[in-house]
């Protein structure tokens, strides 16, 4: 058997270079690039291997290990899990910086390959710089932290182990039912070791994402249950988009008259004006979808993990409502007494459409969905209406941005107050142009994801919307995007701190405390000059004083040659209404009467929760 003698690090990189996938019917690299910050643990061996193949596997330098791993996740979302970016770090704090990003990818079922330097297997130099020692277990170091937030975890303690480890990591990241981040720790002394690797290990391999078809009996039972329904409702989740089932589901809902609502991750699977669309559901959802959910007798949940913001902490539905859960992941399919149909969303929807041929929902129920959605759109029009008020609301800002961006441009948001406002107010013009990361609700994702998404598709512009609090938490990838030439447009809504958490604090009877800057222990809550800050990193920037100025500035931003930042002061207290309930902990005992009242109301709300057994 022909062998190739190389170091473990060189073998790893060579393997990555020879993995391919199919994107839009064309062969493409499975790993199109690496985000790297080099330090001890990855600078001598791994960087040497990456430098040699930089024209095949380009390496991009980030500014923070967490943010560059988030850029890799934004790339994966934009590619709908078809391609996977790599993020590498040194040992110690560099590795730990990526743990938050790993949690984000894990919660959202997204693939990213994380490679971290590691201490010496031979332990001769121990303790090395940045090594965290565990007196009772010397084999543990900071990289073990990734075990809680990755789908696949390994530490390579012998060069030959790559042969079995890397294919398993790839298989995990490409498995629709088990998709998530893979982590491989690379001890410094093992990276340098040479080994005679079988040449076959480096053979070009084209991977195809498997599509599991549903069990016939499960599907048959789902068809019987659906045909017996009087008021069915479809919940379209992120799995619909990752499966590429958007057209099939849109056709199914329209053909059979089944009202269709979307989760946060699923938003953008259909356009806003699709005839069966009734809006987003849940706590960040619409009055229309929540009204339909409250009366639905059969809910078809497709590609969703049904988190509390979608279900209103399981109060959005009637207690006797029946669930059909179509999901590639068995774990997600079997939640809350659902009839589990385990299978790929596109394949299952196609088979469901065949089985339902000739059947339609009662026309009154279909019309009810359209009427409720029409009322919701009228409400949005009112909240987005331009006024002469000195401080615009989030809804007004979102409405202006929505109007001015291109039909294919990608909206990106994550934590804070903007997710609720964009999920409610953003009217999707083209499928798959909406990314609101709320599975982990991770502050800092937005700007990094803008960089990654711009890298993933240079034919459209990512539109990143964040609050001032998130901007201050992680903004260095503005600089990274300018350096690499990957443009996005960033709109910073400055409402003076963490306004949405202040809202929750007040809603549960608490005093405003440590959220808005004016309520923090500060000498003076002076505003940040976001324009000067962005310009200092090489971006173009403008501050706008009014909604009219915002529209004009957006038109200018579309013409620029680099990342462009627009800032606008926004209201911290006016929000688009929602009517779903959320379960949070409220103190049983408090000196504040308002807290005691909120606690009593919370206990009353829990009586409406669906029991998940």
* Overall spatial form: globular
- CATH C-level class of the largest domain is Alpha Beta
Tell me the number of strands: 23
Number of helices: 24
Helix content: 25-40%
Strand residue percentage: 15-25%
Instruction: Classify the secondary structure makeup into a structural class.
Output: alpha/beta
The CATH homology group name of the largest domain: Thiamin diphosphate (ThDP)-binding fold, Pyr/PP domains
Radius of gyration: 25 Å
In whole angstroms, the N-to-C terminal distance is 56 Å
Major β-sheet profile: 6 strands, parallel
GO biological process, one term: isoleucine biosynthetic process
InterPro entries: DHS-like_NAD/FAD-binding_dom, Myo_inos_IolD, THDP-binding, Thiamin_PyroP_enz_cen_dom, Thiamin_PyroP_enz_TPP-bd_dom, TPP_enz, TPP_enzyme_TPP-bd
Protein name: 3D-(3,5/4)-trihydroxycyclohexane-1,2-dione hydrolase IolD
Family: Belongs to the TPP enzyme family.
Characterize the structure shown.
- This protein is an alpha/beta fold.
- The protein folds into 4 domains: 3-207, Rossmann fold (3-Layer(aba) Sandwich); 216-375, Rossmann fold, CATH 3.40.50.1220; 385-569, 3-Layer(aba) Sandwich (Rossmann fold); 587-613, no CATH class.
- The strands form 5 sheets. Strands 5-4-6-7-9-8 form a 6-stranded parallel β-sheet, sandwiched between helices. Strands 14-13-12-15-16-17 form a 6-stranded parallel β-sheet, sandwiched between helices. A 6-stranded parallel β-sheet has the order 19-18-20-21-23-22, with helices on both faces.
- α3 packs across α18 and α10 (246-256) packs parallel to α14.
- It is globular, with a radius of gyration of 25 Å.
- InterPro entries: DHS-like_NAD/FAD-binding_dom, Myo_inos_IolD, THDP-binding, Thiamin_PyroP_enz_cen_dom, Thiamin_PyroP_enz_TPP-bd_dom, TPP_enz, TPP_enzyme_TPP-bd.
- Residues 221-352 form the Thiamine pyrophosphate enzyme central domain.
- Keywords: Hydrolase, Thiamine pyrophosphate.
- This is 3D-(3,5/4)-trihydroxycyclohexane-1,2-dione hydrolase IolD.
- It comes from Acidocella aminolytica 101 = DSM 11237.
């Amino acid at each position: 058997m022909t062998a190739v003698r190389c170091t473990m690090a060189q073998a790893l990189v060579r393997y990555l270079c020879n993995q391919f996938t199919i994107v839009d019917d064309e062969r493409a690299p499975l790993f199109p690039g690496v985000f790297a910050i080099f330090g001890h643990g990855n600078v001598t061996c791994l960087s040497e291997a990456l430098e040699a193949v930089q024209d095949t596997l380009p390496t991009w330098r980030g500014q923070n290990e967490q943010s560059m791993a988030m850029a890799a996740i934004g790339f994966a979302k934009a590619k709908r899990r078809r391609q996977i970016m790599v993020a590498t770090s040194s040992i110690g704090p560099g590795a730990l910086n990526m743990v938050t990003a790993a949690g984000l990818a894990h919660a959202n079922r997204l693939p990213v390959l994380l490679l971290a330097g590691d201490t010496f297997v031979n332990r001769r130099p121990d303790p090395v710089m940045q090594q965290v020692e565990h007196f009772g277990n010397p084999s543990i170091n900071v990289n073990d932290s990734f075990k809680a937030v990755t789908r696949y975890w390994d530490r390579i303690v012998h060069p030959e182990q790559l042969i079995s480890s890397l294919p398993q990591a790839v298989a995990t990241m490409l498995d629709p039912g088990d998709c998530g981040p893979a982590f491989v720790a690379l001890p410094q002394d093992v990276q340098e070791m040479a080994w005679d690797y079988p040449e076959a290990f480096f053979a070009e391999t084209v991977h195809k994402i498997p599509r599991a078809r549903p069990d016939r009996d499960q599907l048959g039972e789902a068809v019987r249950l659906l045909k017996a329904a009087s008021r069915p409702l479809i919940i379209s989740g992120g799995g619909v988009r990752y499966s590429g089932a958007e057209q099939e589901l849109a056709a199914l809902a329209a053909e059979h008259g089944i009202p269709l609502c979307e989760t946060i991750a699923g938003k953008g699977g259909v356009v806003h004006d699709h005839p069966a669309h009734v809006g987003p559901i849940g706590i960040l959802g619409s009055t229309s979808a929540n009204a339909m959910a409250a009366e639905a007798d059969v809910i078809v949940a497709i590609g969703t993990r049904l988190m509390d913001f979608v279900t209103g902490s399981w109060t959005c539905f009637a207690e006797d409502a029946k669930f059909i859960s179509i999901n590639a992941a068995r774990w997600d399919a079997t939640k809350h007494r659902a009839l589990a149909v385990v299978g790929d969303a596109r394949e299952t929807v196609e088979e469901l459409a065949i089985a339902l041929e000739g059947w339609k929902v009662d026309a009154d129920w279909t019309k009810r969905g359209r009427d409720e959605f029409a009322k919701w759109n009228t409400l949005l029009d009112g909240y987005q209406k331009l006024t002469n008020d000195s401080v615009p609301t989030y809804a007004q800002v979102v409405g202006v941005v929505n109007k001015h961006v291109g039909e294919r441009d990608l909206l990106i948001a994550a934590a804070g107050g903007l997710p609720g406002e964009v999920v409610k107010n953003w009217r999707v013009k083209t499928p798959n142009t909406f990314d609101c990361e709320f599975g982990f609700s991770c502050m800092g994702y937005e700007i990094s994801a803008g960089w990654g998404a711009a890298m993933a598709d240079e034919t459209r512009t990512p539109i990143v919307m964040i609050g001032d609090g998130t901007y201050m938490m992680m903004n260095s990838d503005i600089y990274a995007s300018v350096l690499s030439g990957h443009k996005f447009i960033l709109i910073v809504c400055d409402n003076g701190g963490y306004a949405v958490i202040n809202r929750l604090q007040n809603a549960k009877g608490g005093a405003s405390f440590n959220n808005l800057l004016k309520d923090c222990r500060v000498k003076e809550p002076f505003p940040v000059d976001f324009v000067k800050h962005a310009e200092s990193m090489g971006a173009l920037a403008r501050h706008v004083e009014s909604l009219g100025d915002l529209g004009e500035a957006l038109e200018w931003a579309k013409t620029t040659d680099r990342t462009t930042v627009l800032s606008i002061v926004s209201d911290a207290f006016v929000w688009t209404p929602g009517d779903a309930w959320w379960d949070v902990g409220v103190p049983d005992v408090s000196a504040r009467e308002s807290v005691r009242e909120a606690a009593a109301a919370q206990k009353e709300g829990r009586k409406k929760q669906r029991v998940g057994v």
